[in-house]
Amino acid sequence: MRIRLLIISVSLLASACYYDKEAILYPETNCVPPASPSYQADVVPVMNQFCVSCHSGNFASAGVKLDSYTEVMKYVNNGQLVGTITWASGYSPMPKNGNKLSSCNISKIQAWIAAGSPNN
Ligand code: HEC
Fold first, then answer.
1. Cα angle 68, 72, 75; round to 5
2. What pLDDT is attached to residue 107?
3. Taking the chain (120 residues) in consecutive chunks of 10 residues, what is each chunk's mean pLDDT?
4. Does the C-beta of 77 come closer than 6 Å to ligand 1?
5. Angle CA(20)–CA(37)–CA(71) in degrees, nearest 5?
6. For ligand 1, what atom is nearest to the CA of residue 92?
7. Distance from Cα 66 to the centre of ligand 1, integer Å
8. Whose alpha carbon is nearest atom 6 of ligand 1?
9. Can you tell me the distance from the alpha carbon of 17 to that of 34, in angstroms, rounded to the nearest whole number?
10. Which helix (H) or strand (E) holds 47?
11. What is the pTM of this model?
12. SS3 of residue 112 by DSSP
């Protein structure tokens, strides 16, 4: 089951990132921020791969749940989503005890927020 989830999230990530001349701007992963950012396509796969293991269910770390649009929006609106994933001072760096998200994944989430966080 874990393996299947991993394969699904890896293939989602791979299909969301494609090679383009703009990859020069994002050499780390050859990933281009989406032109029309989408919650389902750009945010959910990142949350599922890096955050939901600790942030869902009754025992969610710090009471923070990141497994639904409504819950994620709380941390968009209070600035903690971007603060934690960019490791900004004053926020706990997330994923906890893990590596920082790739600049590709961070830029996808920032592009989605800049587009008004559409629920699509
Ligand atoms: C291994 C478990 C774990 C993972 C994975 C994890 N978190 Fe956390 N998260 C925590 C814990 C524990 C806290 C409580 C604060 C602390 O201990 O630093 C927390 C707190 C938070 C908070 C509350 C703000 C704050 O500064 O305390 C936010 C927002 C957050 N996490 C977002 C995320 C995001 C986004 C991801 C994925 C990129 C993520 N977390 C991945 C364990 C985790």
1. 160
2. 94
3. 53 48 49 87 96 97 98 98 98 98 95 97
4. no
5. 140
6. 26
7. 10
8. 95
9. 9
10. helix 44-50
11. 0.81
12. helix
The amino acid present at 64, given as its one-letter code, is V
Any atom of ligand 1 within 6 Å of the Cβ of 31: no
CA of residue 7 to ligand 1 center, whole Å:
24
Per the listing, tokens 């701007």 go with 25
> In sequence order, what are the residues at sequence separation of 6 or more whose Cβ sits closer than 8 angstroms to the Cβ of residue 112?
34, 37, 38, 39, 42, 43, 118
Q: How far apart are CA 78 and CA 83, in angstroms?
A: 9
Identify which of 13, 104, 15, 113 has the alpha carbon closest to the alpha carbon of residue 5.
Answer: 13
Q: How many CB atoms lie within 10 A of CB 57?
A: 10
**Residue count of the chain:** 120
| Cα distances (Å, whole numbers) of residue 59 to 5, 14, 31, 71, 93 | 21, 31, 34, 15, 20
